[in-house]
Design goal:
The chain is α/β, with parallel strands linked by helices and about 220 residues long. Helix content is about 35%, strand content about 35%. The protein has one domain. The protein has helices at about 10-15, 40-55, 65-75, 135-155, 200-215, and strands spanning about 1-5, 20-25, 85-95, 100-110, 115-125, 160-165, 170-180, 185-195. Helix 2 runs antiparallel to helix 5 (about 200-215) and helix 3 (about 65-75) crosses helix 5 (about 200-215). The radius of gyration is 17 Å and the shape is globular.
């Protein structure tokens, strides 16, 4: 049994452990949010968030400042009922032939008794610079761990899970379907959105997050 942390797992590792099917960037159904209505309160808060970014060079801000100003406020705004936004969430999963563990910078998921029980969206605030690790592979690890946790709760053969990574105020989303969790080599199929810049597209980013939450809220009661 091999154990990996999210920050250390590599693409060759994943290729050896799972069947990985990566799709092209496209306008998938889950990214089509033009018709999604926003509440007046949401529109006001989005204007405030965008206003706090427009006159700042986000690429010069440190990661904690970007998280506080740009990333976490959108996650918090998307909360509904038991689906809550959390930061610094520990994720662990044990598959047949490997284990995964680490910290997700943020999650949106069902919370019970002060714990994230079912993560539906995992968020990685990617490091910047030439020395940074590939954020995509780290998110894959988080998606696999989150899917396993959800499988433990609902037992569904096919697990759907969403993820994203942020660099400064840019967001890139992905949707994964993970099957064969009890097999020696599970399968993960991944779809990708384009990149969205929060200064210009805060409403679209929030609508994608809100659509994800809306999809799961009925199953969280």
């Amino acid at each position: 049994m091999v154990k990996f942390t999210f920050s250390k797992i590599t693409r060759p590792d994943l290729k050896r452990l799972i069947h990985l099917d990566e799709k092209a960037i496209a306008n998938y159904e889950w990214t089509q949010v033009e018709s999604l209505a926003l509440e007046e309160k949401e529109e006001r808060q989005l204007q405030d968030i965008r206003g706090h970014l427009l006159n700042y060079d986000t690429h010069l801000m440190n990661e904690a400042t970007i998280w506080a100003r740009a990333i976490y406020p959108l996650l918090l705004l998307a909360e509904q009922g038991p689906i809550q936004a959390w930061a610094e969430v520990s994720l662990q999963a044990r598959y047949v032939n490997f284990e995964l563990e680490g910290i997700a910078d943020g999650t949106l998921g069902k919370c019970v008794a002060g714990l994230v029980e079912s993560p539906y969206l995992v968020v990685l605030e990617a490091k910047r610079g030439l020395e940074a690790e590939n954020p995509l592979i780290q998110v894959y690890g988080q998606l696999l761990a989150a899917a396993h946790l959800n499988w433990e709760k609902n037992g569904n053969e096919l697990q759907e899970i969403f993820g994203c990574y942020t660099i400064a105020d840019s967001w890139k989303f992905m949707r994964a379907e993970i099957a064969g969790i009890e097999t020696e080599k599970p399968t993960m199929r991944v779809e990708y959105s384009r990149e969205y810049i929060e200064k210009l597209e805060a409403e679209t980013i929030f609508k994608i997050i809100k659509k994800i939450v809306n999809q799961y809220i009925a199953f969280s009661d």
